[in-house]
Amino acid sequence: MTAAGSPASGRHFGFAEWFRPGEYERTENLLPGIIGSGASYLRTHLSWAEYLAPGGQEWFDWMIPKVGSQIDLMPCIHYTPPSMSRTGRSNGAPKVLKDYADFVDHVLTRYGKHFRHIELWNEPNNLLDWDWREDADFQLFCEMVGGAAHWARERGWKPVLGGPCPFDPMWLNLMGERGVLNVVDAVGFHGFPGTWDSEEGSWGGWDMHLGEMRSILDRHNPQAEIWITETGYSTWRNDEMEQARRFTRALQVPADRMYWYSYADVPPDVAVQEGLWFDPRHYHLGAVTHENQPKLLARLLSEGGIDRLMDVTRLATPHLATGAAPVIITGGSGFIGSNLADSFLAEGEDVIVLDNLGRPGVDQNLAWLTERHGGRVHPVLADVRDLRGIEAAFQDAKAVFHLAAQTAVTTSLVSPIDDFEANARGTVNVLEAVRKAGKKAPVIFASTNKVYGALEDIEMVEMDDRYVPADRAIRDFGIDERRPLDFCTPYGCSKGVADQYMLDYAKSFGIPTAVLRMSCIYGPRQFGTEDQGWVAHFLIKALSGEPVSIYGNGKQVRDILYVNDAIAAYRAVHGAIDTVKGRVFNLGGGPQNSVSILLVLREIEKLVGEPLQTAFGDWRAGDQFFFVADTRRLENELGWQASTRWKTGLRQLADWLQEHRFGGSRIADERVRVTA
Description:
Layout: E1 14-16, H1 24-36, E2 41-47, H2 48-52, H3 56-68, E3 72-78, H4 97-111, E4 117-120, H5 135-154, E5 158-161, H6 169-177, E6 186-191, H7 206-220, E7 225-231, H8 240-251, E8 257-261, H9 296-313, E9 327-330, H10 335-345, E10 351-354, H11 362-373, E11 377-380, H12 387-390, E12 399-402, H13 409-414, H14 416-437, E13 443-448, E14 460-462, E15 467-469, H15 472-477, H16 489-509, E16 513-518, E17 520-522, H17 534-544, E18 548-551, E19 557-562, H18 563-575, H19 577-580, E20 583-587, E21 594-596, H20 597-608, E22 614-617, E23 626-627, H21 632-638, H22 646-660, H23 668-675
Parallel strand pairs: 1-2, 1-8, 2-3, 3-4, 4-5, 5-6, 6-7, 7-8, 9-10, 9-12, 10-11, 12-13, 13-16, 16-20, 17-19, 18-22, 19-23
Antiparallel strand pairs: 14-15, 19-21
Helix pairs in contact: 4-5, 6-7, 8-9, 10-11, 10-18, 14-16, 17-20, 17-22
């Protein structure tokens, strides 16, 4: 197998994904991701009712061959046409039981070359007005499914019996006594621990439930396999790490197959069986969002399959001694967070690294921290949007650095609600967790210069390679903290809201907080992208020999700050929190490190020894022609200074990237030649 889920792991899995009639584009969009995740199997439905509806046959004529030609497909045959149902509804029993077997026979004839297994009904308890405890009803169900299974087997296919949810061993045993288990090759099991199956209530554990199933099957059909035909975990509270953990646990249970429900979230405008938004958990069970954006589970599977997923989910959880007082860094696996954590760990502190690992590559930073500092690193793999999931971590904190955020303007324009949830609600959750802990731990917050808006009122002079303000004071010193706030773009709004909540919690609740409004930070351990971390992104592109995309004309000016200097500022604010609480500071490289994009690109060309391929695009929303932070408040009150000049820092980042991302082999010769 060449997909991401390599056989080296010894484990295989599938997804249960319901493709609805007419979802041609959705099917085309999701299928490559399902294949790319390393899935070996796909379970989908072939609704009898939808097949006979207008356009139904045309849809299934396209969908079944499309999917079945690319992956081991198992269709689930269910939903009686209302006109043929005893109840007049699609999930009722058919008037003539043989009609179900006849439809299964038709499906095998028309589509059978595209699959080996066929599932008979989804959940028997979905049949309206059927009560298996009533002997007459149960006999009808056994006749319907048993007859269809027998005929499918006679024709050479392998029938799978759908199981009730929650699992009922009495039902399964009766199916054996009525002879149905003798004519199936596998029996399905549905279980959703942590989502619908309460750990303390109906859920007794995988071993218990599947052990009961195995003992019943051994009495009636020892050759029958046990398949988990549906299991999953809803991320409705944004706990994507827990979803990844649940997936790995399901892989290790004693079943012959595991289908994860589902690959993609249900679109918000689609009604589930109980109705539209009857239960929000239904809408967040996917490994990707309804817009096909990967959650942590899908990203890890696509990056390295099951082995990659297992490596990340094995990361430790905190094991702090009672009464220990750790430093908490939210977003602690990120670029700035990991460098900040390293500085505290190097001094012997215990550090809780709270991170959802949502940004590609940051788990490498966490691995680096644990390799360097061992047991004093305490990962809490959770999301700040999930208050219930993070509260316990703050119980004994002596200091909190809140860096977790959605960091890209572009992403905020695509998904403003998600941006708000991460930046605004996530910040309030952190503040509430600190307030509930009752120890008034200081909280230092990473804000942004975007809270000042696009600065459109500042008159600019266009030079050959940069913009400069016409106002001499701004040109010489930059933008100071007295600048009025002017939120622009959803990202600016969400960070601005968080900024102001942080300051207000100092006033309203006496929590010692401080805010650092940052310019562009760069340095080692940064996995820069086009949307955020542009200095590292440009270097990565240059070292890869790839073209660089520039939005605008490249003359926009920023003051870039090397990460070691940023860490020094955070540490200085923390050290003086009693005197600076409730205050805000601008943090950037200042005028001495102000550069245009064009100037940085020229310096990168010198470092790599060859010209860069560049392409220019339209300006992006909210982009500032000029932002240089006036850092005199930090300098005068805390004695902080930016000590690394930008050319030196750029060279150090290039060296780090060459060693850690490119194996030291890409441009060593050119660097020697340029130096010479």
